[in-house]
Structure formats: structure tokens, C-alpha cells
Amino acid sequence: MDTFGHLNLLLLLGIAAFGGTIGAKIFQKLRIPQVVGYIVIGIILGSSGFGMITPKTVQYFSPFSMFALGIIGFMIGGELKIEVFKKYGTQFMTILLAEGLFAFFVVTVLCTVTAKFFMPEASWKFSLALGLLLGAISSATAPAATVDVLWEYKTRGVLTRAVLAIVALDDGLALLLYGIVASVAGILTGSQHDSLAKAILMPAYEIFGAAGIGVVTAAVLVFLMRYIVEHDKVLTFTLSSVLLTIGLSMALNVDSILAAMVFGAVIANFKPRRSLDTFKMIEKFAPPIYVLFFVLVGARLQIASMQSWALVLAAVYVIGRTAGKMSGAWFGAVISKSPPAIRKYLGLCLFSQAGVAIGLAILASQKFEGPVGSTIILIVTSTTFLVQMIGPPCVKLGVKLAGEVGLNITEEDLIVKYKVKDVMETNPAVIREDLPLDEILDVFTRTDSLYYPVVDNRMRLMGIITVGGIRDTFAFQNVAGWLLACDIAQPVMDKTTSNVPLAEAIEHMQKYDLEYMPVVSDEDNKLIGVINSRAVMRKISAEVIKNHEQADEMATA
Question: 181-223, pLDDT tens digit by residue?
Fold first, then answer.
């Protein structure tokens, strides 16, 4: 394992980022979410594989991992709009309590019974304490891997909205449950005598403390946004604010992800228009951070040989948590009268578990030294690998069955997707090269174009006449009657072909300040269309709005 110990941290980061990106591409080809590729590459590079990224190295990068979680939390918070919670708040809270408590009760019962009959010399008190702690931890859902899938597949709709809300609020419920059961487990094992009041106050402090930090840092950024115009300054202040939020939450021992979520939610709701650009900039900045974060998650996972009783308990934990999440999500959706998509598919989107669960497991191992703590660490870390593998594909399946994939497509996505032939005007108004000036003016009165390609009798492009450019001809009124289109046509500034990527064509037009550009055939320079930059953007914006309206109609159906 020490073979690669001489590699410096920057080289390891480069290998992790490069390898993670390649792994993501391979898994995307196999129609598996890219986040699985990141994690698998991390496992290969980690101590379970070649040992290039050791547990000590992962520890070095823990501040970076916290920053990545802060970015993810900030982006999730940006999706939590006040109007959404006004409309769906009751549904979300009902489903949250149902899926969290169902997972808690099912895992508690199954793990208690399994521990009693499979663990050597386990008493009922020990088994119940272990079951309660695993039950509380099972209620947590990892937002990072889940949200990455939603972003990758551009999902939008009522299921996507519900998933974002549930994974954002799950942390708080898990912390509250853990705080209560930790006190009960301490009494059962005789290792702790905290009062129930203290057990409730500690998670309450974490939740409200995190919310307070998020609100304060967001208020500072909202104030600064009044005076910031430059985009690079907005990006700098936003990233600085995320760092401050994470740093303060760590210093005060409160939930960092929750603080970042609150920070993002406040920005999105109090500066809705201005924050759109902010979130877009962070979204473009974040992909390399996500790659490194998930590679490190994979490198941290320990896939080692386990005793038979541990394998049984781990299997029971995963089965119980899966059954509890799915049945609880369905039950909560039914009693809250949620749309069919939520009732059928929300449970599939709640399997992933990582950061908060591992954090609570570490807390349990510190609080309950001995068999209870070590067993919890063993079970949670080993099952994290499995749920991180099956979670993202299940999220993809859920949103695909709900019909929400691709409905959150942006203008940039469509520009990258299209070619010139998809958006060009195929039947533009043209002027023959031998047309006299008076007939040219007649063409102007019969059409509403401002740009006219001049062609010969074989439709080959010869020049351009614009409404603005023809004014110069009236300075020569004494010969105006003799002028033909070929005499007054301007040279073609530039042209393109139908199979050129639209992104390339638009970039070229913006670079040279062209509003129109003729489209010609590759072989003989024949005019086959015109690309109008304003018309293209109107068409693309209309398609984006159509997709969003389709998603919103599905949400109300």
C-alpha cells in the first residue's frame, strides 16, 4: 500500500480528476449515472484498490470535501423556493416524516432481532441499543449523489421537486432522531446518563444553529449584491460566502450541509432574478469539484472481509432501510394526496447514504466505546458502498419512469445539441442578381426581412443587400434606374453550412458582430437558408419554456 506514498497531493488530485472523468464517461456509455463512475474510480485508487489514495490522504483532503458538500448544499438550497413550499409544504413534511420514521422503525426492529440471534453473546439490551442507533442513522439520505443524477439528466417536475425537498430536510430529521435514541441507547448500555431534554436540545442546537449561520451569511451577500456588477466579483463573493458558511458551521459544531442549504435558499428567494446568474456561474464552476469529491468518497470506502454475523447484519440493514424508505414514501404520498409520480417513484430516489450517516456513525463510535460503536462503524461504512452503487441508478430509473428526464434543459444545452440546419430559415426572401432597383424596392414592401441574399439563376450566393445598406444608392439618383442587384450588393461577410454545430456558428457570429449569416451547400455554394441570431434565440427560448410548461403541467396533473 506504500508503493505510491511518494506521490505529491497535486499529482494525486490530477490522477483522481482525470481518472474520475474517464470513469464517468465509460459508465455514461453503459447508461449508468456518472457519479457511479467517480466512486468506482475512487475505490480503484483507494486502499481497497491500488492504494494510491490512502486513508491518511483522504483525511488531508477533508476540508476540500467539506467545501464540495457546501457547494452541493448551496445548489440544493437554490431549488427550495418559497412558492414551492407554500404549494407543496404539507405534502413534503408528511412524506419526510413517513419515509424517515418508517425506515427508523423497520431497521430498528430487524437489526435488534438479527443482532440478538446472530451476534455472539449479544443481550437484548445491547441488541436494542444497536438497533435504535442504526435505525436513526438509516433515516438519513445523502443529497450529493442523488442531486448529481438529477442535474446530469436535466430533470424537472413534481418528483424532482419532491426529491430535492426531502433530501434537503432529511439531515435535520436524522439528527433529531439520533439525539433522542442516543440517550436511550446510553441508558440501555449503561454508558451514558444524559437527560432526554439534553438529547433533544443538542440536535435542536445543530439544526437552528446551522439555519442561523446560513441566514446571516446570506444576508451579507444579499447586501453586497446591491453594489456588485461584475460577474467575476459575484462568483468570488459567493464562493467566499460558501467557505465562510462551512467554516463557521464547523467551528460551532453544527450541520454544514444544512447551513449551506439555508444560505442558498435565502439567496434564491430574496434575490430571485439576480441569483439566477449566480447559480449558473457556480454550476459551471462546480463539475471538477464534484468529480474530486466523489472520487474521494470512493477512496474512503473499505471493502474488506467481514465476519458472517456482520454480513448478515449489513444485509438486514440495507433491506430494512430500503423497505422502510419505499413504504414510508408511498404511505406519506398517499395520505398527503400527492401526485402519482411521487407515490410510485419517490422511494426509488432515497437509497443513497453517505456523509451524514457516516458522521453519525463516527459520533456513535466515540460515544459508545466497545462493541456497539465498532459494530455501527462497520455496518454503516460497509453498506455505504452498496447503497452508493445502487442509489444513483435507482434515481435515474425513478425520474425516467416519471417522464421528467430532459425537461429542465437550458438554452445552452439546446445550442450544444443543435446544428445550423435545425434552426435556419429554409425559405428566405432572396433577390436575383439581375433585378432592377425599383423591383428590389418592391420586394422590400412585400416582405418584412432586413437581410436579402443575392443569388444567380442557379441559386449560387453572389452577395448581400440590406435595407440599411441600400440607402446609399439614393445618392446617385441620376443613375438609379440603371442599377441592378449585382451593382449594389455588398460582399458576403461570412457564411456557413448546414452541418456546422450551432454553438460554433453562434460563437462566430458574436465574435464578428453578425446578426445574419447565409447557409450554403458544401459542394456548389448554393444558398439553402439563412441563420438569424435573434430568431434562433427566440426559437430556443420558446422550446425551453415549452419543456418547463410540460413539466409544470405534469406536476399539477
Answer: 877 777 777 655 555 566 567 767 777 888 899 999 999 888 8
Beta-strand relationship, 461-466 and 451-455: antiparallel
Question: Where residue 338 falls among pLDDT bands split at 50, 70, 90?
Answer: confident
**Please, which residues have CB within 8 angstroms of residue 38's CB and are 6 or more apart in sequence?**
20, 23, 24, 290, 291, 294, 295, 297, 298
Residue with cell 448581400: 464
3-state secondary structure 209-250: HHHHHHHHHHHHHHHHHCCCCCHHHHHHHHHHHHHHHHHHHH
Domains and CATH numbers, the chain: 34-408 (1.20.1530.20), 415-543 (3.10.580.10)
User: Taking a C-beta distance cutoff of 8 angstroms, is the pair 453, 424 a contact?
Assistant: no
Q: In 10 A of CB 444, how many CB atoms?
A: 17
What are the grid coordinates assigned to 235, written together? 462568483
Name the percent of the chain lying above pLDDT 90.
10
DSSP, residue by residue, 107-161: HHHHHHHHHHHHSTT--HHHHHHHHHHHHHHHT---HHHHHHHHHHTT--SHHHH
User: Can you tell me the distance from the alpha carbon of 266 to that of 357, in angstroms, rounded to the nearest whole number?
Assistant: 26
Residues 65 and 289: their CA atoms lie apart, in Å, by 9
Distance between CA atoms of residues 235 and 108, nearest Å:
45
- What is the predicted pLDDT for the residue at 109? 94
Interatomic CA distance for residues 450 and 435, integer angstroms: 17
CA-based radius of gyration for the chain = 30
Per DSSP, the three-state class of 370 is coil
- Locate all alpha helices (DSSP H) within 3-81, ordered by sequence: 9-29, 34-45, 55-60, 62-77
The 10s digit of each residue's pLDDT in 425-473 is: 888 888 888 888 778 788 887 887 888 888 888 888 888 888 776 766 6
Instruction: Output b/e per residue, 374-405; b: 16+ Cβ within 10 A.
Output: ebbbbbbbbbbbbbbbbbbbbbbebbeebbbb
Question: CA-CA distance, 389 to 385, in Å (whole number)?
Answer: 6
> What pLDDT digit, counting tens, does each position of 151-173 carry?
888 888 888 888 888 887 787 78
